[in-house]
Amino acid sequence: MSLHTTAPASADHAHLLTLAHERSRRYGLDLHDAPHYQRLGRGALRDALEEHRFLSRHATPVMEHLYTQIANTGSMLVLTSASGLVLHSLGDSDFLPKADQVALIPGMDWSEQAQGTNAIGTALQERQAITVQGAQHFMHANHSLACSCAPIFGPYGELMGALDVTSEHHRHHPHTLALVRMSVQMLENQMLTAQFPQAIRIHFHARPEFLGTLVEGIAIFAPDGPLLSLNRSAQFQLGLHTLPRPAPDFSALFHQPLATAWNAQTQQLMLHSGVRVGCRIHLPQRPDAQAAAAARPSATQRLSHLQYLDTGDAQLAHAIARLRKVLDKDIPVMLLGETGTGKDLLAHAWHQDSARADQPFIAVNCASIPESLIEAELFGYADGAFTGARRKGAIGKIAQAHGGTLFLDEIGDMPLSLQARLLRVLQERCITPLGSEKDIPVDIAVVCATHQDLKARIAQGLFREDLYYRLNGLVVRLPALRERSDLLAVIAKVLQVVQPQGAACQLAPEVLEKLTRYPWPGNVRQLHNVLRTASVMADEKGIVTCADLPDDFLEDYAQILADEAPAAPENKAENLSDFTLQRMARALAEHQGNVSAAAKALGISRNTFYRKKAQLQSGAV
């Protein structure tokens, strides 16, 4: 069968599909294979989402904007990693059941190796946008689909992922790929500006009326002149397919000294080709801007972000009051509490209330970065520091936080080998990137967080005692959600944040009862996820009912009621015949003690296993 019977294709497009089908065969796939729908485990998916948090954070609003343009067309929006792993999806309700069938849900693999020729895998492989329709897919199981996908490139030109729109083949629109490309361009521009908050940004175009649009060029320069990055339009206008090495400076590209940019008066620049372009210049805070900063409202005059988090619980109010006392006092802060209690929110609010609020807030999750990468991630590295390093090196997270706040989440999981280097940074206020002999001074406020018992980690030889006391300036413990007296206020505030724009959902009384009785092992993060899902499911009804709550939450709640119910008199023989416990024990044995796998096999939640853990381990089954 021809690859192109379902839609006309250019010669280039046909050639890409031919190459993709040849690769599919080399991968050992067969046209009639059942699709590969093995979903990533929950823990591994959580790690993947954390690893791609920068991409997801910037992609989410772009996807929501794109969705408004294709809503009610029976389409599904999909964001993937560079390997083809689905990270996030958004779609029409009438396509959702079909999306489940074709596995366009987080945790699924849509690489060519797994699914054969398809828009996601092929766009990532070829590093260019493509539409794959109907029988152009390699596997017959996907012939009902039409998919338009564009790869996403990061601020350093690296492949970061892909954005895809999938619909049923007969509902495909020929302009879909153009919309996807525009959305990716918007996303790449946003990530570019976010990556370099303290750099000089030149926005330019030969037609000044195009400034502020997606087609404007964006060039990023270090304050001392070297080029750091370009968006795609800038590359096209400058005739640069890749960044030259060594990187050119401002004057080499625009034929005038960088100093002309600092007065922010220049409306025109000249490219090295002789073409004049209109421009807008965005500058970091200038060295002589202290007077202007002094004229702005002080941190105490602004709306307090810490105050926003104070919703009436006495324990949390006490913690916030203590944090206020050390604002701008150069005292390190250590936040303790269970996972999901909002330590990251509190750290960011503390930064926003400080005199450093206009400077970067850089968060690093020490538990989510592979041990082999965390040193480079924190300290950065010089050109050629190690095999696979970017040719121009990279600025580490600590240097990025210069002038602002560094938040080290899950500090208890930092590898022991790096703790000595971090201690030196805190003591000497300078860093040395990997492969460099040059010390770089840094001015940072430090906030750490952990759910671990650091003193126990010290006793086990897993955490340095001297680092512990260097970080242990002010220790604040956040209460678990089940311990707080302001649960109703928290529920109301979270619901206000998560519900769709323009919606005004209320909670039915039976829903509110369940939410207040539930123990919230995942704390505020879990509450956020439950209410976000429920408010979306409620759609335009205006009220969230029990039918809108996630199934795993309802299952956990039912089990809680069962556990709280008075136990009927029974003897050990009756315990031994407990069919549910026997099934759980059998599933655990079959999956070598893997709770997640056993829970998935039985179709129940992991929390149910954990609540029955004592009975399972006691030999009651």
Descriptive account of the structure:
The chain is an alpha/beta fold. It contains 28 helices and 19 strands. The strands form 5 sheets. It has a 5-stranded antiparallel sheet, with helices on both faces. A 5-stranded antiparallel sheet has the order 8-7-6-10-9. Strands 12-13-16-11-17 form a 5-stranded parallel sheet. The longest helix has 20 residues, at 176-195. The chain is globular and about 85 Å long. Mean pLDDT is 80; it is low at 1-8, 286-303, 385-390 and 569-577.
Supply the key terms.
single chain; alpha/beta; Beta-Lactamase; 5-stranded antiparallel sheet; 19 strands; 41% helix
In short:
The protein is α/β, with parallel strands linked by helices and about 625 residues long.
Largest sheet: 5 strands, antiparallel
Helix content: 40-55%
The strand count comes to: 19
Counting structural domains, the number is 5
Q: Evaluate the radius of gyration.
A: 27 Å
Task: Output the CATH homologous superfamily of the largest domain.
Answer: GAF domain
> In the CATH scheme, what's the topology name of the largest domain?
Beta-Lactamase
**Shape verdict:** globular
How is the largest sheet built, in terms of strand order?
2-1-5-4-3
Which structural class fits the helix and strand makeup? alpha/beta
Total DSSP helices: 28
Average of pLDDT: 80
CATH class descriptor name of the largest domain: Alpha Beta
From the N-terminal CA to the C-terminal CA, the straight-line distance is 57 Å
Give the low-confidence spans.
1-8, 286-303, 385-390, 569-577
